[in-house]
Amino acid sequence: MRGCRMKVLVIAAITAAAVGHGVISAARADAVGPADCDPGESYDGGACTPCPEGSYQPDAGQSACLPADPGHFVAGEGAIDQEACSPGTYQPDEGQAGCLDADAGHFVSTAAATGQEACAVGTYQPDAGEAGCVDADPGNYVAEPGAAGQHPCTAGNYQPESGADHCRFAGRGHFVARVRAAAQTACLAGTYQPESGAVSCIDADPGHFVEQDGLAVQSACPPGTYQPGVAGIECLPADPGSFVGGSAAVAQSQCAPGSYQPGPGASRCLRARAGRFVASPGALEDAPCPVGTYQPGAGAATCRAATPGHFTVGPGARIQIACSPGSYQPAAGATGCIPADPGFFVAGSGAFAQAPCPEGFEAPDPGQDACTAIVVVADTTPPRPPGVGVVLLWLLGFALVATAIGVGVGRQRSRQSWNQSPWRR
Questions:
Q1: What pLDDT, in 10s, does the model give residues 74-92?
Q2: Cα–Cα distances in angstroms (integers) from residue 416 to residues 111, 142, 341, 405, in the given order
Q3: Which of 286, 288, 239, 238 lies closest to 258 in space, CA to CA?
């Protein structure tokens, strides 16, 4: 536009000069030579004529005009000087009446330019006739020289700087969801992204977790923990009474009967100890075997009742104990043994019944493991009439018998209390 204005002004000046020159020439038409030509004119062999556009003559008395140099122009006739092309325009040829505007994607930064320059990569120019180029905006790029426009970074890419010739891929653990992004976004905890150039993040799988922002991988829940849902940021510890034996678990498992677990976050259950048992799943502790039962091994779901001829001591018994000789136990699940009655005996251990003494043998006391032979002493003295002393002896005998009967009844009544504790010789 500036070149056009200058051209109009030069033409007006040349026109005015030509009019005046015509008046003078008419006055001296009979005697014109090269020396008579003014600046802006040339002698053509018969008259002085104005220099045509694209040429000029700064001196008087010249027979020829000068062509405008490359990078310059002369807009009209009769010019005494050439004009330099302004920034944003150029002229590669001589003798031209005007300059050329720089094309879009190009620029001319100085005056008197003979050519235009392509915008460098990272810059662009959408308009013609410009003296410079524009840097690509953040979120955009220009990869080729001479560009008339910039290109947006696509989703999955970003560019934080201006004047860039490329976009950056979103890094691992990050994403870019929109075009023209100037920054990438970190994946939130519970999500991850193992690839670069991603447009979104991936939810952590069940049995896995992502504990912080910007991670590229998910982590498997370690033994003792689990995660049933997606996008987990942590794993859940196994509850007391439960366990998680492996990694990447999506659920916990209850401890089976015969095992227990008192604490959280366990990777295994504890076996019930000897003398104890666990009857139901999900137990927090093992229980002692009740009285009359026992358990010699670990990991039991039940206890064993003491067998006939045996008994156990207290709750939590690990073994049963055989009744000792002189005692017996006919029932199962007993906590003690029964002493053999007078007149009966038990010869060995672990008996579930007593035996009567054979004829001619006796066991005067309870709890005997053998009977003794009855000794009969023969009386060789002749009989004689009983005296007063004999009568007294008979009375004493009757009294002893009555006493023995009373003692026997008392023992029979106390047998229940005798049976409640172990009998041993």
A1: 999 999 999 999 999 999 9
A2: 132, 107, 13, 19
A3: 286
Neighbour-count burial for 158-196, b at 16+ CB within 10 Å, e otherwise: bbeebbbeebbbbbbbbbbeeebbeebbbbebbbbbeeb
Q: Lowest mean pLDDT of 2-6, 120-124, 128-132, 147-151, name the range.
A: 2-6
CATH number for 323-374 (one of 1.10.10.10, 3.30.1850.10, 2.10.50.10, 3.40.50.300): it is 2.10.50.10
Cβ proximity of 347 and 371 under 8 Å: no
The pLDDT value given to residue 46: 85
The three-state secondary structure class of 36 is helix
Is the whole-model pTM more than 0.70? no
Distance in Å from the first CA to the final CA of the chain? 134
352 burial via Cβ count (<10 Å: 0-12, 13-18, 19+):
middle
What CATH number has the domain spanning 2-101? 2.10.50.10
Angle at 401 between CA 398 and CA 407, to 5 degrees: 145
What are the residues facing 327 on neighbouring strands?
339
Q: What is the reported pLDDT for 32? A: 75
| Cβ–Cβ < 8 Å for 241, 284 | yes
The span from the CA of 338 to the CA of 166, in Å, is 100
Instruction: List C-alpha distances in Å: 258 to 181, 282, 297, 304, 365.
Output: 61, 10, 11, 14, 47
Buried residues in 383-397 as b, exposed as e (16+ CB within 10 A): eeeeeeeeeeeeeee
**Beta carbons within 10 angstroms of residue 308's beta carbon:** 18
Closest CA to 108 of 142, 71, 143, 74: 71
Q: How far apart are CA 78 and CA 189, in angstroms?
A: 80
Report pLDDT for 305. 98
Torsion of CA 368, 371, 372, 374, to 10 degrees: 120
Give the contacts of 401 (CB within 8 A, at least 6 positions apart): none
Burial of 288 (0-12, 13-18, 19+ CB in 10 A): middle
CATH 2.10.50.10 residue spans of the chain: 2-101, 323-374
